[in-house]
Amino acid sequence: MADIQLYGASWCPDCRRAKKFLSDQRVPFDWHDIDGDPDGVALVEARNDGKRIIPTIVFSDGTHLAEPTNEELADKLGLARSAMMHVYDLVIVGGGPTGLTTSIYAARENLETLVIDSKGLGGQAGVTERLDNYPGFPEGIGGADLADRFVKQAERYGVEMLQAVSVTSITDEGHRELDVETATGDHYHARAVVIATGSSYRRTNADGEDDLIGAGVHFCATCDGPFYKGSRELMVIGGGNSGLEEGLFLTGFTDKVTVVERGNALRGSKLLQDKVLNHAKMEVLLEHGVTAFRAKDDGSGKLGTVELEDLKGGVRVERHPAGAFVFIGLDPNTAFVKDRIRLDERGFVATDPTFMTDVGGVFAAGDVRGGSTKQLASAVGEGAAVAIQIRGYLDRLDREGMN
Ligand SMILES: Cc1cc2nc3c(=O)[nH]c(=O)nc-3n(C[C@H](O)[C@H](O)[C@H](O)COP(=O)(O)OP(=O)(O)OC[C@H]3O[C@@H](n4cnc5c(N)ncnc54)[C@H](O)[C@@H]3O)c2cc1C
User: Fold this and answer.
1) Atom 20 in ligand 1: which residue has the minimum CA distance?
2) 66 has which bridge partners?
3) How far apart (Å, rounded) are the C-alpha atoms in residues 286 and 299?
4) CA 229 – CA 241 distance, rounded (Å)
5) Residue 152: left if φ>0, alpha if ψ -120 to 50, beta else—which one?
6) Residue-by-residue pLDDT tens, the chain, 403 positions
7) What distance lies between CA 297 and its chain's CA centroid?
8) Atom 17 of ligand 1: nearest residue by CA position
9) Does the C-beta of 197 come closer than 6 Å to ligand 1?
10) Measured from the CB, is residue 349 less than 6 Å from ligand 1?
11) Atom 53 of ligand 1, residue of closest alpha carbon
12) How far does CA 358 lie from the centroid of its chain?
């Protein structure tokens, strides 16, 4: 049993938000859907003076929070939301593999380094079930385990790290000074900033998708796949590497996984395609697109139907998987800099060969950078490379200052 018990219902948006927040922070919790669970309802009412307030979150110290905001949850979990100083040598926006690697390299060189992450440290790697192609781990390694190792190593070198804090802007203040503003209203100043904010899952934008996120429509098999243990069928939308990998992972929880792909062939690596096509539990549906996600008509608010369109004939068919997992690509997390820093045509950050953007002192690396290869090993490599470029840049500033 986890230290945190989360009582709620799948149709409740605040419950989904709280669930997502805990998952993003990689905080283990047990989820109790109180719909049709009299014991769960009784517990919630007992905790809230007879009121049925969800989410109700019970902690191991016996206390609980009813309908907490993300900020209240962060405080309860003891997450520091303001840094110790206001001026650093280097501020890194994003605490995924790229940002954490940069921080380890920079702090080893005695640069005062602050990492700020809007969710939990570890980035996408931290929420990936298993990484099999990261060098040095012949048996593979769990994503959460690897992320914990990155964080521990950064801690060992004295890197300061904030979680659940979004950076909202980076401003060139002139005089080689940069200002980093956070959603908590704090301002941090540094001579160098790294944008290492990665990318986010793309949505299908089919009807009903938004309403059913967390109630049958998901973007993270690791986070939500186990909820479907013993189910009859799950669906994966997208036949690229992520879709195929996560589809294979989901076969551990269900009798059948259907992969839906718009193109006339799967797009993942040959190795993954072979695994999927030869897997007894997997079916592939090519040249089909999702047109709607619909809730069950029993009032539960959970996914009941996925409507697909045969893109050749235009015929619509209905499938009834217990859950649908969407893996159709990534969008760079660059909205907070889009008016100040040059982006490429796909919205990724444009950099020169030294990883510098068009704003002096602002660098970008990892999945958010135009031309990056969206792999963990390359993210870590870029994280190290950008740290070395920053060292050179700061040395040049120091030399110029002396002249
Ligand atoms: C499902 C899945 C499976 C994968 N499997 C593999 C695999 O097997 N092998 C492999 O090599 N690679 C794999 N990858 C890719 C690998 O995880 C990424 O390449 C790697 O995590 C990129 O690291 P990053 O630090 O650049 O970005 P991310 O890991 O995306 O980290 C970016 C961080 O920035 C934070 N952030 C975003 N915006 C802001 C903001 N405004 N303020 C503050 N913080 C912000 C985010 O919360 C996030 O923590 C997988 C990816 C996914 C999604």
Assistant:
1) 376
2) 56
3) 32
4) 23
5) alpha
6) 889 999 998 778 788 889 878 987 888 899 999 988 999 999 999 999 998 899 999 999 999 999 998 888 998 999 888 999 999 999 999 999 999 999 999 999 999 999 999 988 898 888 776 787 899 999 989 888 999 999 999 999 999 999 989 999 999 998 889 999 999 999 999 999 999 999 988 899 898 887 787 789 988 787 678 889 999 999 999 999 989 999 999 999 999 999 999 999 999 999 999 999 999 999 999 999 999 999 999 988 889 999 999 999 999 999 999 999 999 988 999 999 999 999 999 899 999 999 999 999 999 999 999 999 888 999 999 999 999 999 999 999 999 876 6
7) 31
8) 125
9) yes
10) no
11) 124
12) 27
Cβ(183) to ligand 1 under 6 A? no
Query: Does 372 sit in the ligand 1 pocket, CB within 6 Å?
Result: no
Residue 296 CA, ligand 1 centroid: distance in Å? 33
Contact in structure between 310 and 288 (CB atoms under 8 Å)? yes
Q: What are phi and psi of 397, to 5 degrees?
A: -60, -40
Name residues whose C-beta falls within 8 Å of residue 336's C-beta, 6 or more positions apart in sequence.
166, 167, 168, 169, 170, 197
Q: Report whether residue 367 contacts ligand 1, using a CB cutoff of 6 Å.
A: yes
Which run of H or E residues covers position 152?
helix 143-156
Give the integer Cα–Cα distance in Å for 90 and 243: 36
Alpha-carbon distance of 265 to 377, in angstroms, equals: 27
Measured in angstroms, how far is the CA atom of residue 214 from the centroid of ligand 1? Answer: 20
Among candidates 6, 11, 20, 15, which has minimal Cα distance to 218? 20
Q: How far is CA 203 from the centre of its chain?
A: 14
Indicate the residue type of 296.
K
User: Percentage helix, strand, coil, to 5, in the chain?
Assistant: 30, 30, 40
Report the predicted TM-score, pTM, of the whole model to 2 decimal places: 0.79
Quickly tell me which residue has 């690697």 as its tokens.
101
Type of residue at 299: G
> How far from the centroid of its chain's Cα atoms is residue 350's Cα?
22
The answer to whether 182 and 168 have CB atoms below 8 angstroms apart is yes
Checking phi first, is residue 278 left (phi over 0); if not, alpha (psi -120 to 50) or beta?
A: alpha
Give SS3 for 56.
strand
Kind plus residue range of the DSSP H or E element containing 330:
strand 330-332
C-beta of 95 in contact with ligand 1 (< 6 A): yes
